[in-house]
């Protein structure tokens, strides 16, 4: 059986790679029983380093919307060049927290 594909970056997720479930609508914003997607851990961390829970719930509740975000689009272009099991600290500066 082939490895699952990360819907954000499009790379396979090998069984030994760090992975996590992402709630498309954050649990704290009403998505407790909502749709989830399995992502590379690095992809999941970049989403939460980029967007607030409110932004995710309001404007980025689909994979397509996440891919269209300018910072995430740059991240995806960067991470696609890495092997499927690649892990690293989230590159770049975290979003400003108020």
From TrEMBL:
Organism: Pukyongiella litopenaei
Family annotation (Gene3D superfamilies): 1.10.30.50
Name this polypeptide is given: HNH endonuclease
One MF annotation (Gene Ontology) recorded for this entry: endonuclease activity
Keywords: Endonuclease, Hydrolase, Nuclease
Taxon lineage: Bacteria, Pseudomonadati, Pseudomonadota, Alphaproteobacteria, Rhodobacterales
């Amino acid at each position: 059986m082939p490895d699952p594909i990360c819907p954000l970056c499009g790379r396979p997720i090998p069984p030994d790679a760090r992975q996590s479930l992402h709630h498309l609508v954050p649990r704290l914003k009403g998505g407790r029983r909502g749709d989830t997607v399995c992502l590379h851990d690095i992809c999941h961390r970049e989403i939460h380093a980029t967007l607030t829970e409110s932004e995710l719930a309001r404007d980025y509740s689909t994979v397509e919307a996440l891919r269209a975000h300018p910072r995430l689009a740059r991240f995806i272009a960067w991470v696609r060049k890495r092997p499927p099991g690649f892990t690293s600290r989230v590159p770049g500066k975290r979003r400003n927290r108020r």
